[in-house]
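Exam revision sheet. Question 4 asks you to relate a sequence to its structure. Input first:
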Amino acid sequence: MPGLGCRTFLRLLQTHSPEQIFKESACALQALGLKETSVQAIKNPDWIRVEQDMAWLDQSNHCAITLTSPDYPSQLKEIADPPPVLFVFGDPALLATPQLAIVGSRNPSTLGKENAFGFAQDLAAGGFTITSGLALGIDAASHRGALAANGFTIAVAGTGLDRVYPAVHKDLADQIVAHGALVSEFPPGTPAKAGHFPRRNRLISGLCQGLLVVEAATQSGSLITARLALEQNREVFAIPGSIHNPLAKGCNALIREGAKLVETTQHIFEELTHCFTRDEKLFSVSDQSALDLEQQTLLNLIAFEPTGIDYLVAQTGLPVAEIASTLLILELQGYLEATPGGCYARLLVR
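Answer key, structure tokens:
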């Protein structure tokens, strides 16, 4: 209904039930501070859209949770403007589980996508439900990481749940429904609009116990989500990056402003131990003692960003052929990946 946003709805709920609002006269509604367009919408509901919503709710795995329902997630009730209704496609019980949100660039680097996938995989294996926004890039990698761990994941949409945005994520959305839930405050039939995504972001941060920013430029929407999380008294984590990487500038700025710098999932679990007791055996660090001295030396020289062979030759004095052979071994063992330009980047070892 026009003019009835979350804050107005919450204000009305302080004195009226929804049923009472519909029974009030037009004059009484105006006395409550409602605009004429809102009053007319209340007195003349769009019954066609109501019937469409009810038809959607009749389908399997579809539900709506109202703000006054005991099933409404308690975390979300804490924010300044919780939505009066949450539409859910999937398992609504997951909304009450400990959640870690992961957000970042829609156009991340290869390393950024790997970090998002790896962190989500470990965090999901440790018991967190991974929450994100189904967007391209870091969001999608985070959902896929949780699914790879046979964990749970929630995607908060900026549209009605009768559609998937972006459409290329239709298969991913189906997997999320099977192992988690799609959630939206927008009723079925709502298209994608620019103004919907900042609103969606406050739900991503509001549902979680903590939020991790993987990669973000200085003008990224992920920074807006992070600042919303801070306002909502959530823990904010950021993965640092090179001062020369534009996709790291947002994360580095967050760290300067007080976000917690994280290099491993262990840092996140240490901060959020109050959420649950996890199985420590899932998080033993991979043993590198099987590597010989030359392999360990070379591995320690390679950054989590593309590192050239010329640099390794200059640092070690070893022949190019010997370095190339060692790099191949480390790549096959999962410590490195080849990157464009004949470089190598270190992989996260969990």
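Marking note for examiners. The mean pLDDT is 89.
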